[in-house]
Amino acid sequence: MKFLVTFIALLFTYICLTLEIELNFVINSYSVLDDAFQLIIEEFNNYANETNLDIQLKMTYFTDENDGDIGYNDYDKTLKLLEKKKNKYDIFAYDPLYLKIFSNYLLDLKKYPDNTIKEYLDLYSTKDNIDLTEYNGHRVGFPLFLIISVLHSNVNYLRKHNKDVPKTWSELIETTEYILEKEKDDNPDLIGYNGLFPDNENALCSFYQFIYSYREEKELDIPEFDSQTAIDAAEEIMNIKNTISSYEIFKSNEKHIVDEMITENMVFVNFYSSARMPNYTISALPGKKPGINGSIIGGFNLGINKNIIDERKNASIEVLKYIFSENFQKEIIVKN
To answer: 194 and 275: one domain?
Structure first.
């Protein structure tokens, strides 16, 4: 009799486990946000266990280490996964930059037959959020992280040499030249400035951002590429590279930049606001004139693959409802 009871208990446990849905959460690894993604997965799985939700999240990473050709946001590999009609990948974290490309493969949340999702959509219906998550009237995600490019300045070197955070590109060059000259004996490998021109979309974004920072007045739009303003900006980019940086540093990828910041081996860094490092202060990127600058806006949306079966769609909706609930958003902000 005791054996029978044990057998029934084990059988019940097995049935419960087999009924649990394991969802695959696809993320393009971005070093400074990896911990945040891991925290989200862990928090949801704990919540699901506590509430008997029978859903678990499993993370699938694309990283620089897996493939030397992958950038921080490898959209072509994500697209290949989404194009599969029979798909085992459920929830995707994607850059809003590729909203148009991914929209055909993601679930339109406004048309999903679960009325409870509407209140969550309403919470994220500001113009900025709509611009980031809606294409051709189809709402294909929620905005998870929003980040902007800023100037990270090494406060140790600024204090040591009694220098201020630069507000113009000419000040950046002058200050960096001074610090590199003073440090050349003790720290000959010190990097002045990175530029942020890796082999991915960040290079083009950085180029646009720099040209925009060269406009004469705040109210003006980005200069035309064939304008004298754009030509002057391009020449200044080359001047910065040749004076306080190098081709190799300008082309370095995001992981290398983060590694150099961790070791505090860079004086000034053009990088995203999410990379908060000790001994670096953040400010607006410089411009041609003080107070006239530019920035890159990036981040991650979360969307659901529309080619998965209804059972997995329903489970994925439950995940989004938890992640984008007001309580969880407050919690994740506090923990990060």
So the answer is: yes
Q: Judge if 287 and 312 occupy the same domain.
A: no
Closest CA to 323 of 336, 315, 335, 332: 332
Q: Which residue type occupies 203? A: A
**Same domain, residue pair 271 and 190:** yes
Give SS3 for 151: strand
Domain limits for position 39? 21-140+305-335
Q: Which residue has the tokens 């003006």?
A: 220
pTM of the predicted protein model: 0.74
Distance between CA atoms of residues 155 and 281, nearest Å: 7
| Shared-domain flag, residues 223 and 329 | no
Query: Angle of helix 34-50 relative to helix 310-323, nearest 10 degrees?
Result: 110
Separation CA 64–CA 252 (nearest Å) = 12
Structure-model confidence comparison of residues 171 and 11, the more confident one: 171
Mean pLDDT of 301-306: 93
Q: Is the dihedral of CA 82, 316, 104, 272 positive or negative?
A: negative
Number of domains in the chain: 2
**CATH number of domain containing 110:** 3.40.190.10
Residue with tokens 């440090």: 183
* Burial readout 117-131 (b: 16 or more C-beta within 10 A, e: otherwise): beebbeebeeeebee
122 CB contacts (<8 Å, ≥6 apart)? none
pLDDT tens column, 213-250: 999 999 999 999 999 999 999 999 999 999 999 999 99
294-322 mean pLDDT: 92
